[in-house]
């Protein structure tokens, strides 16, 4: 696995480089700013970019904005964002539309080396990894007891494909149904998961997060068969 690291703190950046090298991960570039990150990915085509949310010059959202550019312009490169704090809207923006090859973790997780390395490989392999604290906050306003269990097997199929980043048209083609049928299933999913149409968060993102949360805890999503 070839990795690019983007972290403005020299101490943390060098620490990550040393940690990954000790775990047999090849770090092809380690940079301190968003522009250097974009150039490194464009020139080196890594498997994964590890990106800090807050980077120069303003230390607000430069890192996440660069990560979103990578998601659009370099879809073959997976993105794992590290954040000091839970910042819900950044996590929602990051996985909106395509919840594959993407991760959002709190920096505290790096201390658990085994979990961190497994997460790197999972995301680089096309998986999704969202910090449990982020998931809890994103779902806190809409969570009920095991809402995914309300979905029909067909709705679970649709939600599974949504979690893979498929559009409604792509889902229709995969399931050999009409686009209109998929739209009805998606609307039903939103209703059953208690995702109101006037909510501030992306309903599609929240639906996917619910699916991932249910799968992680052995719910209906985990028991779904292909």
Spell out the blueprint of helices and strands:
Elements: E1 2-6, H1 10-22, E2 26-31, H2 34-44, E3 48-52, H3 62-73, E4 78-83, H4 88-95, E5 102-106, H5 113-124, E6 128-130, H6 132-139, H7 153-163, H8 168-175, H9 179-192, H10 203-216, H11 220-223
Parallel strand pairs: 1-2, 1-3, 3-4, 4-5, 5-6
Helix pairs in contact: 2-3, 7-9, 7-10, 8-9
Description:
The protein is an alpha/beta fold and 226 residues long. The protein is 51% helix and 13% strand. The chain has helices spanning 10-22, 34-44, 62-73, 88-95, 113-124, 132-139, 153-163, 168-175, 179-192, 203-216, 220-223, and strands spanning 2-6, 26-31, 48-52, 78-83, 102-106, 128-130. The protein has a six-stranded parallel β-sheet, sandwiched between helices. The mean pLDDT is 84.
Q: Main beta sheet, described?
A: 6 strands, parallel
Strand proportion: 5-15%
Query: How would you spell out the order of helices and strands?
Result: EHEHEHEHEHEHHHHHH
Radius of gyration (CA) equals: 18 Å
Strand order, main sheet: write it out: 2-1-3-4-5-6
What structural class is derived from the secondary structure elements?
A: alpha/beta
Helical region count?
A: 11
Overall pLDDT metric:
84
Percent in helix: 40-55%
Please describe the structure with a list of short key phrases separated by commas or semicolons.
226 residues; 13% strand; elongated; single chain; 11 helices
